[in-house]
């Protein structure tokens, strides 16, 4: 990771592009996205505008380095159709790539067919993250997903036949979801031969249709104990199939861990492009592009979010909301994020960050453990992750 002491500013080695389009808004989703039918620009224009935002970073007076990962997320990037392959081709042409660069696109089953999968592979994509969520049609209907289980299976097959690595997103703890339904989804997912699986408990986000339904009593509040049991069940089923839980919500076959997301969890810098995207720069690079306030304050890291509205058109250099982190905040953040990973964080790193006292308190509660001079989150701690992470951030 770059540090504030470096003399040569470099663009980050990781690029995220946000495609804020959806077929329709799912009941539980609070990410920034817009229904495709409500957007006046065509997908070709949108893809071109996103590419222009990415290319604008290359026009800054900062040396690019070889990208280790590109991740195109959303929203539903696959709604761009073949324009998505064109966007990938532009990015991989303009930005220098590391020889083993990971290039991931998110897709939903209803908008990914064999033609698009092959085009993505030809454009340089190496990996597809498929939003399956469940293989139970009743659960998919409850979540207001626009696909059914058969469509999900067909999309996964298209990914495999195109020679791409496959990651599946699954959700548990859904009202009405039985243990048997969850087992069937897990076992059905393994039949699709993914290298990577992400498992998330359903979270009721404020302002979503699902939140409103819960508030008026039409839908029961998800039971956190049921969700915890389902998370543990997923760990058991996936472990039997050779998947290691390398992060609180992520499982991979050996060598198939998401390199892009691991960059987030290890404090690496990354560029964020597209409406609602987030990025992070080390202080040296942030200063070189003029983002660090000229107040002489302690700035070690800078986070930004892209502020623009797809309905108003996308400019190459949109407004950014900026947050600066001090050296002390950066050290605490690195420990907090590192505890999401199975490998944990070195004890000396935690001590320098001033987190040792908080970790001792968490150890007494059985939420973390000290193994081979590394602090690691326990299985129980992963289930109570917010408690662990907030305690470390607060230093309490």
Please explain how this structure is put together.
The protein has two domains: 14-263, Aldolase class I (TIM Barrel); 330-394, Arc Repressor Mutant, subunit A, CATH 1.10.10. The strands form four sheets. A nine-stranded mixed beta sheet has the order 9-10-8-7-6-5-4-1-11, with helices on both faces. It contains 15 helices and 17 strands. With 396 residues, it is an alpha/beta fold. The longest helix is centred in the middle third of the chain and has 17 residues, at 224-240.
Topology:
Elements: E1 14-19, E2 21-22, E3 34-35, H1 43-58, E4 67-74, H2 82-94, E5 97-107, H3 114-123, E6 127-133, H4 137-142, H5 149-161, E7 165-172, H6 179-191, E8 196-201, H7 209-215, H8 224-240, E9 244-247, E10 250-252, H9 259-265, E11 271-273, E12 278-282, H10 283-288, E13 301-307, E14 319-325, H11 327-338, E15 345-346, H12 347-352, H13 356-364, E16 368-371, E17 374-377, H14 379-383, H15 385-394
Parallel strand pairs: 1-4, 1-11, 2-3, 4-5, 5-6, 6-7, 7-8
Antiparallel strand pairs: 8-10, 9-10, 12-13, 13-14, 15-17, 16-17
Work out the radius of gyration: 21 Å
Please identify the oligomeric state.
Answer: single chain
Give the strand tally.
Answer: 17
Distance N to C terminus: 27 Å
Overall average pLDDT: 92
Largest sheet entry = 9 strands, mixed
Report strand order across the widest sheet.
Answer: 9-10-8-7-6-5-4-1-11
CATH superfamily placement of the largest domain = Aldolase class I
CATH class call of the largest domain: Alpha Beta
Instruction: Please identify the structural class as seen in this structure.
Output: alpha/beta
Specify the number of helices: 15
In CATH, the architecture of the largest domain is Alpha-Beta Barrel
The CATH topology of the largest domain: TIM Barrel
What is the beta-strand fraction?
A: 15-25%
Number of domains: 2
């Amino acid at each position: 990771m770059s540090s504030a002491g470096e003399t040569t500013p470099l663009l980050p080695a990781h690029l995220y592009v946000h495609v804020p389009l959806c077929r329709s808004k799912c009941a539980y989703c609070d990410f920034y996205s817009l229904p495709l039918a409500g957007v006046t620009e065509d997908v070709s224009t949108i893809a071109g505008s996103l590419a222009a935002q990415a290319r604008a970073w290359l026009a800054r007076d900062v040396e690019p380095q070889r990208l280790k990962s590109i991740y195109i997320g959303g929203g539903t990037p696959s709604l761009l159709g073949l324009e998505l392959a064109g966007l990938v081709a532009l990015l991989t042409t303009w930005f220098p790539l590391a020889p083993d660069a990971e290039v991931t696109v998110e897709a939903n089953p209803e908008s990914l067919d064999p033609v698009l999968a092959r085009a993505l592979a030809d454009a340089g994509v190496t990996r597809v993250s498929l939003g399956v969520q469940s293989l139970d049609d009743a659960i998919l209907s409850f979540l207001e997903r626009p696909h059914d289980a058969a469509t999900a299976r067909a999309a996964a097959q298209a990914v495999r036949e195109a020679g791409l690595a496959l990651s599946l997103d699954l959700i548990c703890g859904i009202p009405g979801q039985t243990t048997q339904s969850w087992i069937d989804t897990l076992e059905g997912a393994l039949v699709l031969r993914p290298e990577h699986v992400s498992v998330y408990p359903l979270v009721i986000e404020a302002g979503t249709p699902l939140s409103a339904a819960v508030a008026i009593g039409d839908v029961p509040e998800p039971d956190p104990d049921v969700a915890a049991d389902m998370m543990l069940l997923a760990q058991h089923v996936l472990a039997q199939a050779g998947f290691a839980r390398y992060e609180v919500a992520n499982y991979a076959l050996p060598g198939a861990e998401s390199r892009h997301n691991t960059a987030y969890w290890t404090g690496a810098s990354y560029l964020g492009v597209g409406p609602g995207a987030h990025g992070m720069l080390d202080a040296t690079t942030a200063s070189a592009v003029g983002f660090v306030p000229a107040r002489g304050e302690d700035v070690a890291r800078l986070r930004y979010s892209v502020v623009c509205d797809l309905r108003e058109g996308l400019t190459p250099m949109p407004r950014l909301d900026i947050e600066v982190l001090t050296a002390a905040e950066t050290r605490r953040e690195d420990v907090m994020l590192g505890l999401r990973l199975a490998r944990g964080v070195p004890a000396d790193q935690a001590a320098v960050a001033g987190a040792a006292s908080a970790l001792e308190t968490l150890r007494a509660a059985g939420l973390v453990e000290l193994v081979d001079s590394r602090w690691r989150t326990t299985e129980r701690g992963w289930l109570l992750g917010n408690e662990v992470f907030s305690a470390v951030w607060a230093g309490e």
